[in-house]
Sequence to fold (415 residues):
Amino acid sequence: VAFSTADRVAVRAMVDDLVASLRGHGASAGGGVTRLVYSQAWAAAMAEIEGWLGSAGLEVRVDAAGSRFGRLAGERPQVVMSGSHVDSVVGGGAYDGALGVAMAACAVRWLRETAGRPRLTLEVLANCEEESSRFACNFWGSRAMLGLIRPGECDLLRDADGVTIGEAMSALGLVPDRIAEARRDDVCAYVEPHIEQGPLLERLGLTIGVVDRVVGVRQLRFELRGEAGHAGTIPMAARRDALTGAAELVLAGEALARDLGQPAVATVGALRVEPGGANQVPGRVDLTVDFRHVDERVLAGMEEELRRRAAALAAARGLELSVEPRLGQRAVDLDGRLCALLEASCRRAGVRWQRMPSHAGHDAQLLATRWPSAMLFLPCAGGRSHRPDERADMDDVVRGVEVLALTLHELAYEA
Ligand SMILES: [Zn+2]
Fold:
Protein backbone atom coordinates (compact mmCIF):
# COMPACT_ATOMS: atom_id res chain seq x y z
CA VAL A 1 0.00 0.00 0.00
CA ALA A 2 1.16 3.53 -0.75
CA PHE A 3 -0.33 7.00 -1.19
CA SER A 4 -0.93 8.16 -4.77
CA THR A 5 -0.80 11.81 -5.75
CA ALA A 6 -4.59 11.81 -5.80
CA ASP A 7 -4.65 10.35 -2.27
CA ARG A 8 -2.41 13.17 -1.04
CA VAL A 9 -4.68 15.79 -2.58
CA ALA A 10 -7.78 14.19 -1.05
CA VAL A 11 -6.21 13.77 2.38
CA ARG A 12 -5.00 17.36 2.39
CA ALA A 13 -8.49 18.66 1.63
CA MET A 14 -10.06 16.45 4.30
CA VAL A 15 -7.61 17.26 7.13
CA ASP A 16 -7.74 20.94 6.29
CA ASP A 17 -11.54 20.84 6.40
CA LEU A 18 -11.65 18.90 9.69
CA VAL A 19 -9.20 21.20 11.46
CA ALA A 20 -11.01 24.29 10.16
CA SER A 21 -14.44 23.09 11.26
CA LEU A 22 -13.17 22.09 14.72
CA ARG A 23 -11.52 25.51 15.07
CA GLY A 24 -15.03 26.98 14.84
CA HIS A 25 -16.15 25.19 18.03
CA GLY A 26 -14.76 27.29 20.87
CA ALA A 27 -13.19 29.97 18.67
CA SER A 28 -11.61 32.68 20.82
CA ALA A 29 -9.71 35.91 20.24
CA GLY A 30 -6.93 36.06 17.64
CA GLY A 31 -7.78 32.73 15.98
CA GLY A 32 -7.40 30.82 19.24
CA VAL A 33 -9.51 28.00 20.61
CA THR A 34 -10.99 27.51 24.08
CA ARG A 35 -12.77 24.16 24.11
CA LEU A 36 -13.07 22.92 27.67
CA VAL A 37 -14.31 19.44 28.43
CA TYR A 38 -18.13 19.08 28.65
CA SER A 39 -18.73 22.67 27.51
CA GLN A 40 -21.20 23.55 24.73
CA ALA A 41 -18.28 24.11 22.32
CA TRP A 42 -16.88 20.70 23.23
CA ALA A 43 -20.27 19.04 22.68
CA ALA A 44 -20.60 20.73 19.27
CA ALA A 45 -17.10 19.57 18.31
CA MET A 46 -17.94 16.01 19.33
CA ALA A 47 -21.15 16.12 17.26
CA GLU A 48 -19.11 17.31 14.28
CA ILE A 49 -16.61 14.49 14.79
CA GLU A 50 -19.39 11.91 14.95
CA GLY A 51 -20.55 13.21 11.57
CA TRP A 52 -17.13 12.74 9.94
CA LEU A 53 -16.54 9.34 11.43
CA GLY A 54 -19.95 8.22 10.16
CA SER A 55 -19.35 9.63 6.68
CA ALA A 56 -15.96 7.86 6.62
CA GLY A 57 -17.89 4.59 6.88
CA LEU A 58 -16.95 3.94 10.52
CA GLU A 59 -19.25 2.73 13.27
CA VAL A 60 -19.55 5.50 15.87
CA ARG A 61 -19.60 4.80 19.59
CA VAL A 62 -19.58 7.02 22.71
CA ASP A 63 -18.08 5.74 25.98
CA ALA A 64 -19.28 6.58 29.48
CA ALA A 65 -16.81 9.49 29.75
CA GLY A 66 -18.00 10.99 26.45
CA SER A 67 -15.03 10.02 24.28
CA ARG A 68 -15.99 9.14 20.69
CA PHE A 69 -14.71 6.15 18.74
CA GLY A 70 -14.94 5.44 15.01
CA ARG A 71 -14.68 1.69 14.54
CA LEU A 72 -13.69 -0.34 11.50
CA ALA A 73 -14.43 -3.89 12.60
CA GLY A 74 -11.83 -6.48 11.69
CA GLU A 75 -11.88 -10.28 11.67
CA ARG A 76 -10.69 -10.25 15.27
CA PRO A 77 -11.86 -8.16 18.22
CA GLN A 78 -8.43 -6.86 19.33
CA VAL A 79 -8.25 -3.12 18.70
CA VAL A 80 -5.51 -0.98 17.17
CA MET A 81 -6.38 2.55 18.29
CA SER A 82 -5.21 5.93 17.01
CA GLY A 83 -6.25 9.49 17.78
CA SER A 84 -5.86 12.26 20.33
CA HIS A 85 -7.85 14.66 22.50
CA VAL A 86 -10.64 17.09 21.60
CA ASP A 87 -10.40 19.51 24.55
CA SER A 88 -8.01 22.47 24.60
CA VAL A 89 -6.34 24.85 27.02
CA VAL A 90 -7.80 28.34 27.53
CA GLY A 91 -6.74 30.46 24.56
CA GLY A 92 -5.01 27.51 22.90
CA GLY A 93 -4.50 26.72 19.24
CA ALA A 94 -6.41 24.74 16.63
CA TYR A 95 -3.88 21.90 16.25
CA ASP A 96 -3.09 20.56 19.72
CA GLY A 97 -5.16 17.39 20.00
CA ALA A 98 -7.63 18.18 17.19
CA LEU A 99 -5.01 17.56 14.49
CA GLY A 100 -4.29 14.08 15.87
CA VAL A 101 -8.00 13.18 15.78
CA ALA A 102 -8.30 14.48 12.19
CA MET A 103 -5.15 12.63 11.06
CA ALA A 104 -6.31 9.34 12.55
CA ALA A 105 -9.76 9.75 10.95
CA CYS A 106 -8.17 10.37 7.54
CA ALA A 107 -5.74 7.46 7.87
CA VAL A 108 -8.44 4.95 8.84
CA ARG A 109 -10.79 6.21 6.16
CA TRP A 110 -8.04 5.77 3.56
CA LEU A 111 -7.33 2.24 4.83
CA ARG A 112 -11.02 1.28 4.65
CA GLU A 113 -11.29 2.56 1.08
CA THR A 114 -7.94 1.13 -0.08
CA ALA A 115 -7.48 -2.09 1.86
CA GLY A 116 -10.99 -2.99 3.04
CA ARG A 117 -11.65 -5.03 6.12
CA PRO A 118 -8.63 -5.41 8.48
CA ARG A 119 -7.64 -8.51 10.46
CA LEU A 120 -7.58 -6.61 13.74
CA THR A 121 -10.16 -3.94 14.48
CA LEU A 122 -9.20 -0.30 13.91
CA GLU A 123 -10.56 2.54 16.03
CA VAL A 124 -10.21 6.31 15.74
CA LEU A 125 -10.14 7.91 19.20
CA ALA A 126 -11.59 11.37 19.86
CA ASN A 127 -10.58 11.54 23.51
CA CYS A 128 -12.80 13.64 25.76
CA GLU A 129 -10.16 15.28 27.98
CA GLU A 130 -6.39 15.60 28.33
CA GLU A 131 -5.49 19.19 29.24
CA SER A 132 -6.77 19.51 32.83
CA SER A 133 -7.85 23.01 31.76
CA ARG A 134 -11.34 23.01 33.32
CA PHE A 135 -11.02 20.44 36.10
CA ALA A 136 -7.80 19.09 37.66
CA CYS A 137 -8.53 15.88 35.75
CA ASN A 138 -5.06 14.39 35.27
CA PHE A 139 -5.86 12.53 31.99
CA TRP A 140 -9.63 12.00 32.46
CA GLY A 141 -10.31 10.26 29.14
CA SER A 142 -7.32 7.91 29.40
CA ARG A 143 -7.95 7.16 33.05
CA ALA A 144 -11.54 6.26 32.17
CA MET A 145 -10.31 3.84 29.47
CA LEU A 146 -7.88 2.25 31.92
CA GLY A 147 -10.51 2.05 34.70
CA LEU A 148 -8.46 4.37 36.94
CA ILE A 149 -11.13 6.93 37.89
CA ARG A 150 -11.80 6.48 41.59
CA PRO A 151 -15.34 6.14 42.95
CA GLY A 152 -16.62 9.54 44.07
CA GLU A 153 -14.16 11.48 41.89
CA CYS A 154 -17.05 12.78 39.74
CA ASP A 155 -18.39 14.63 42.81
CA LEU A 156 -15.00 15.93 43.98
CA LEU A 157 -13.50 17.65 40.94
CA ARG A 158 -14.90 21.18 40.54
CA ASP A 159 -14.31 23.86 37.92
CA ALA A 160 -13.74 27.57 38.69
CA ASP A 161 -17.54 28.10 38.92
CA GLY A 162 -17.97 25.32 41.47
CA VAL A 163 -19.60 22.89 38.98
CA THR A 164 -18.56 19.28 39.61
CA ILE A 165 -17.35 17.20 36.71
CA GLY A 166 -20.27 14.85 37.36
CA GLU A 167 -22.77 17.73 36.99
CA ALA A 168 -21.05 18.84 33.79
CA MET A 169 -21.34 15.29 32.43
CA SER A 170 -25.00 14.97 33.42
CA ALA A 171 -25.83 18.25 31.68
CA LEU A 172 -24.77 16.57 28.41
CA GLY A 173 -26.69 13.36 29.07
CA LEU A 174 -23.72 11.31 30.29
CA VAL A 175 -24.11 9.20 33.45
CA PRO A 176 -21.25 9.74 35.94
CA ASP A 177 -22.12 6.60 37.92
CA ARG A 178 -21.44 4.52 34.85
CA ILE A 179 -17.93 5.85 34.20
CA ALA A 180 -16.34 2.51 35.14
CA GLU A 181 -17.97 1.09 31.98
CA ALA A 182 -15.53 3.11 29.87
CA ARG A 183 -12.76 0.65 30.79
CA ARG A 184 -11.17 -1.11 27.80
CA ASP A 185 -9.40 -4.44 27.89
CA ASP A 186 -9.36 -5.09 24.15
CA VAL A 187 -6.70 -2.62 22.95
CA CYS A 188 -3.41 -4.09 21.68
CA ALA A 189 -1.75 -0.92 20.31
CA TYR A 190 -2.17 2.86 20.57
CA VAL A 191 -0.55 5.35 18.18
CA GLU A 192 -1.04 9.07 18.86
CA PRO A 193 -0.21 11.70 16.21
CA HIS A 194 0.41 15.15 17.73
CA ILE A 195 2.23 18.40 17.03
CA GLU A 196 5.65 18.56 18.68
CA GLN A 197 4.84 21.72 20.69
CA GLY A 198 8.56 22.56 20.57
CA PRO A 199 11.04 23.86 17.97
CA LEU A 200 13.37 20.90 17.32
CA LEU A 201 11.81 19.27 14.23
CA GLU A 202 11.39 22.58 12.45
CA ARG A 203 14.94 23.62 13.31
CA LEU A 204 16.32 20.32 11.98
CA GLY A 205 14.17 20.41 8.83
CA LEU A 206 12.48 17.10 9.68
CA THR A 207 8.89 16.02 8.92
CA ILE A 208 8.35 13.40 11.63
CA GLY A 209 9.50 12.79 15.18
CA VAL A 210 9.21 9.18 16.34
CA VAL A 211 8.70 9.59 20.07
CA ASP A 212 10.42 6.83 21.99
CA ARG A 213 10.22 8.23 25.51
CA VAL A 214 8.27 10.74 27.56
CA VAL A 215 10.36 12.76 30.00
CA GLY A 216 10.35 12.32 33.75
CA VAL A 217 9.35 15.36 35.78
CA ARG A 218 10.29 16.19 39.36
CA GLN A 219 9.48 19.23 41.43
CA LEU A 220 11.16 20.16 44.70
CA ARG A 221 9.78 22.78 47.03
CA PHE A 222 12.47 24.73 48.89
CA GLU A 223 11.87 26.92 51.91
CA LEU A 224 14.68 29.30 52.95
CA ARG A 225 14.33 31.07 56.29
CA GLY A 226 16.53 33.99 57.35
CA GLU A 227 15.61 37.04 59.37
CA ALA A 228 13.28 39.83 58.32
CA GLY A 229 14.13 43.38 59.25
CA HIS A 230 14.38 47.06 58.33
CA ALA A 231 15.88 47.70 54.88
CA GLY A 232 17.64 50.83 56.15
CA THR A 233 18.98 50.02 59.56
CA ILE A 234 20.39 46.49 59.29
CA PRO A 235 23.99 46.58 57.99
CA MET A 236 24.77 44.29 55.05
CA ALA A 237 27.21 42.25 57.12
CA ALA A 238 24.52 41.45 59.70
CA ARG A 239 21.83 40.26 57.28
CA ARG A 240 20.32 36.82 56.75
CA ASP A 241 18.41 37.65 53.56
CA ALA A 242 16.33 34.68 52.38
CA LEU A 243 15.79 36.12 48.89
CA THR A 244 19.45 36.64 47.97
CA GLY A 245 19.95 33.00 48.98
CA ALA A 246 16.96 31.99 46.84
CA ALA A 247 18.41 33.98 43.91
CA GLU A 248 21.56 31.85 44.11
CA LEU A 249 19.43 28.71 44.11
CA VAL A 250 17.48 29.86 41.02
CA LEU A 251 20.77 30.43 39.18
CA ALA A 252 22.19 27.14 40.45
CA GLY A 253 19.22 25.29 38.90
CA GLU A 254 19.73 27.08 35.60
CA ALA A 255 23.48 26.34 35.60
CA LEU A 256 22.89 22.70 36.45
CA ALA A 257 20.56 22.16 33.47
CA ARG A 258 22.74 24.20 31.10
CA ASP A 259 25.85 22.25 32.10
CA LEU A 260 24.09 18.91 31.54
CA GLY A 261 22.85 20.13 28.16
CA GLN A 262 19.71 19.16 26.21
CA PRO A 263 17.36 17.49 27.21
CA ALA A 264 17.92 18.62 30.80
CA VAL A 265 15.73 21.59 31.79
CA ALA A 266 15.16 23.32 35.12
CA THR A 267 12.65 26.07 35.87
CA VAL A 268 11.66 28.14 38.85
CA GLY A 269 8.17 29.34 37.95
CA ALA A 270 6.83 29.92 41.44
CA LEU A 271 8.48 31.96 44.19
CA ARG A 272 6.97 33.66 47.22
CA VAL A 273 8.74 36.26 49.35
CA GLU A 274 7.79 37.19 52.91
CA PRO A 275 7.09 39.66 54.36
CA GLY A 276 7.17 41.13 50.84
CA GLY A 277 7.60 44.84 51.59
CA ALA A 278 9.88 47.02 49.47
CA ASN A 279 11.54 48.36 52.63
CA GLN A 280 11.91 45.01 54.40
CA VAL A 281 14.74 42.49 54.30
CA PRO A 282 13.13 39.23 53.07
CA GLY A 283 12.85 36.77 55.94
CA ARG A 284 11.38 33.78 54.16
CA VAL A 285 11.18 32.46 50.59
CA ASP A 286 9.27 29.53 49.18
CA LEU A 287 10.18 28.38 45.70
CA THR A 288 9.64 25.37 43.46
CA VAL A 289 12.21 23.98 41.05
CA ASP A 290 10.70 21.94 38.19
CA PHE A 291 13.33 19.81 36.45
CA ARG A 292 13.04 17.24 33.68
CA HIS A 293 15.09 14.64 31.88
CA VAL A 294 14.47 11.46 29.92
CA ASP A 295 16.87 9.42 32.06
CA GLU A 296 15.72 8.62 35.61
CA ARG A 297 19.35 8.29 36.78
CA VAL A 298 20.22 11.75 35.48
CA LEU A 299 17.04 13.07 37.09
CA ALA A 300 18.05 11.54 40.41
CA GLY A 301 21.51 13.11 40.00
CA MET A 302 19.91 16.51 39.33
CA GLU A 303 17.85 16.20 42.49
CA GLU A 304 20.89 15.29 44.56
CA GLU A 305 22.91 18.17 43.14
CA LEU A 306 20.09 20.70 43.70
CA ARG A 307 19.74 19.58 47.30
CA ARG A 308 23.53 19.77 47.78
CA ARG A 309 23.85 23.27 46.31
CA ALA A 310 20.87 24.53 48.34
CA ALA A 311 22.38 23.15 51.55
CA ALA A 312 25.76 24.73 50.76
CA LEU A 313 24.38 28.19 50.01
CA ALA A 314 22.06 28.09 53.01
CA ALA A 315 24.98 27.22 55.28
CA ALA A 316 27.18 29.95 53.79
CA ARG A 317 24.43 32.54 54.36
CA GLY A 318 23.25 31.36 57.75
CA LEU A 319 19.80 30.40 56.39
CA GLU A 320 17.61 27.54 57.52
CA LEU A 321 16.55 25.23 54.72
CA SER A 322 13.81 22.68 54.24
CA VAL A 323 13.18 20.69 51.07
CA GLU A 324 10.25 18.50 50.13
CA PRO A 325 9.20 16.74 46.92
CA ARG A 326 6.11 18.29 45.32
CA LEU A 327 5.62 16.15 42.21
CA GLY A 328 7.24 13.15 40.55
CA GLN A 329 6.29 11.59 37.23
CA ARG A 330 8.60 8.84 36.05
CA ALA A 331 9.99 8.89 32.53
CA VAL A 332 8.13 6.34 30.38
CA ASP A 333 9.47 4.32 27.47
CA LEU A 334 7.13 4.01 24.53
CA ASP A 335 6.90 0.65 22.76
CA GLY A 336 10.05 -0.34 20.86
CA ARG A 337 8.24 -2.42 18.25
CA LEU A 338 5.79 0.39 17.46
CA CYS A 339 8.66 2.89 17.20
CA ALA A 340 10.45 0.58 14.75
CA LEU A 341 7.23 0.24 12.69
CA LEU A 342 6.86 4.04 12.58
CA GLU A 343 10.48 4.36 11.40
CA ALA A 344 9.95 1.72 8.70
CA SER A 345 6.86 3.67 7.55
CA CYS A 346 8.90 6.90 7.43
CA ARG A 347 11.45 5.15 5.21
CA ARG A 348 8.74 3.79 2.91
CA ALA A 349 7.04 7.18 2.66
CA GLY A 350 10.41 8.84 2.00
CA VAL A 351 10.14 11.38 4.80
CA ARG A 352 12.95 12.69 7.01
CA TRP A 353 12.54 11.74 10.65
CA GLN A 354 14.38 11.23 13.87
CA ARG A 355 13.70 9.59 17.19
CA MET A 356 13.07 12.04 19.99
CA PRO A 357 11.65 12.25 23.48
CA SER A 358 8.51 14.18 24.35
CA HIS A 359 9.13 16.99 26.83
CA ALA A 360 5.42 17.47 27.45
CA GLY A 361 2.88 15.10 28.97
CA HIS A 362 0.47 13.17 26.70
CA ASP A 363 -2.20 10.48 26.96
CA ALA A 364 0.27 8.01 25.45
CA GLN A 365 2.39 8.38 28.59
CA LEU A 366 -0.41 6.97 30.74
CA LEU A 367 -1.77 4.50 28.18
CA ALA A 368 1.78 3.12 27.70
CA THR A 369 1.63 1.77 31.25
CA ARG A 370 -1.04 -0.73 30.07
CA TRP A 371 -0.99 -0.86 26.24
CA PRO A 372 1.92 -0.85 23.77
CA SER A 373 1.91 2.83 22.75
CA ALA A 374 3.80 5.20 20.49
CA MET A 375 3.62 8.79 19.28
CA LEU A 376 4.32 10.49 16.02
CA PHE A 377 5.25 14.19 16.23
CA LEU A 378 4.84 16.80 13.49
CA PRO A 379 6.66 20.14 13.43
CA CYS A 380 4.72 23.22 14.50
CA ALA A 381 5.63 26.71 13.31
CA GLY A 382 8.26 28.30 15.54
CA GLY A 383 7.65 25.61 18.16
CA ARG A 384 4.60 27.63 19.26
CA SER A 385 1.81 25.78 21.06
CA HIS A 386 -0.91 26.42 23.65
CA ARG A 387 -1.45 29.81 21.99
CA PRO A 388 -3.66 31.15 19.19
CA ASP A 389 -0.92 31.28 16.53
CA GLU A 390 -0.19 27.56 16.83
CA ARG A 391 0.13 26.13 13.30
CA ALA A 392 1.25 23.00 11.43
CA ASP A 393 2.25 22.90 7.78
CA MET A 394 -0.26 20.97 5.64
CA ASP A 395 2.49 19.32 3.54
CA ASP A 396 3.92 17.85 6.75
CA VAL A 397 0.45 16.85 7.91
CA VAL A 398 -0.27 14.91 4.69
CA ARG A 399 3.07 13.07 5.02
CA GLY A 400 2.21 12.39 8.66
CA VAL A 401 -1.16 10.84 7.68
CA GLU A 402 0.69 8.65 5.17
CA VAL A 403 3.20 7.45 7.78
CA LEU A 404 0.35 6.81 10.22
CA ALA A 405 -1.72 4.92 7.62
CA LEU A 406 1.23 2.69 6.63
CA THR A 407 1.88 1.94 10.31
CA LEU A 408 -1.76 1.14 11.06
CA HIS A 409 -1.78 -1.08 7.97
CA GLU A 410 1.17 -3.08 9.34
CA LEU A 411 -0.53 -3.39 12.72
CA ALA A 412 -4.08 -4.19 11.68
CA TYR A 413 -3.79 -5.86 8.25
CA GLU A 414 -0.44 -7.68 8.39
CA ALA A 415 -0.86 -8.88 11.98
ZN1 LIG B 1 -2.20 17.82 23.30
Summary: The chain has a mean pLDDT of 96. Residues 85, 96-97, 130, 194 surround zinc ion (CB under 6 Å). The two ends are 15 Å apart (CA to CA). The longest helix spans residues 296-317.
